[in-house]
Amino acid sequence: MKYKKALLPPEPYYSGRVTRYPDRKVPFEAGLRWHVSYEIAYVKKGKVRLNKLDCEIILNEGDVYVLNSQEVHSYDDISDDTQVIMLNIIPKAIAPYVDDPHIVPKFKQPQGEALEFIRETMNTLYGFEEYKSKLISMKVRAVMYSVAYYLIRDCIDNNIEYVHGSQADDFDCAKSAIRYMHDNYKHEITLGEIANYVGMTPAHFSKYFKEKTEETFSRYLRRVRLEHAIDDLRNKKITVRQAAIENGFPNVNSLILSCKSEYGRTPAELKNYSEKN
């Protein structure tokens, strides 16, 4: 089963992120992925298929669904003119308000008053013209903490078992390896080093990781570095060479070749395309 960690950095003025479709300039559909933040999805119009490791859920107009931290998932647009909004909230924003701040709480699906409030609030959030200005960020922050309030008050699951996405699929070591890559991608990471980190021999880990992600360890690590390098080029005033060196590539040519292989464009072309769109 192929899945990857998604990078969802919070906006600078609030501890979360809002993604509205069809505004976003990338396709709605994406492969199985997971991220640290909670994700609250609301379907304003149309119909969406939510794919989890152990089931598929059809979300209809007006439906709300809460995905827990690190829960593996993907979406498919299965109707015309779909309108969907996702609110991501990082666990650190919730930690001060739960009994044990060292535990990442798991939430049940909202019902009753909590469901009605979150549905109405997400519908209002969809109507905001944009989400990144300082002034609008005040409103988004208020919405985010209002939703978090109802999740904490009414939806905490007392079974604090860590959320894996599926009890039937053993990918804990793959997740640990992926987290290790994201934490250390700027430095050299050898197969032996990461295998030792998850408690396997290099040969066993290499086979295991390929089975779980359908990618080799080296290609996955290269994609992690590439995502960070492209993100830096889009958001920082740095050169392609700097982006390569600062994100773990041995040289600028390695970054350029990886980018052309993955996206069909050079890093500079991808940066220019992003700025124009």
TrEMBL record:
Molecular function terms, GO-annotated: DNA-binding transcription factor activity; sequence-specific DNA binding
UniProt xrefs under PROSITE patterns: HTH_ARAC_FAMILY_2
HTH araC/xylS-type domain: residues covered: 175-273
Alphabetic keyword roster: DNA-binding, Transcription, Transcription regulation
Name this polypeptide is given: Transcriptional activator RhaS
A Pfam family reported for this protein in Swiss-Prot or TrEMBL: HTH_18
Record-linked InterPro entries: AraC-bd, Homeodomain-like_sf, HTH_AraC, RmlC-like_jellyroll, RmlC_Cupin_sf
Keyword DNA-binding part of the UniProt annotation: yes
SMART domains, alphabetized: HTH_ARAC
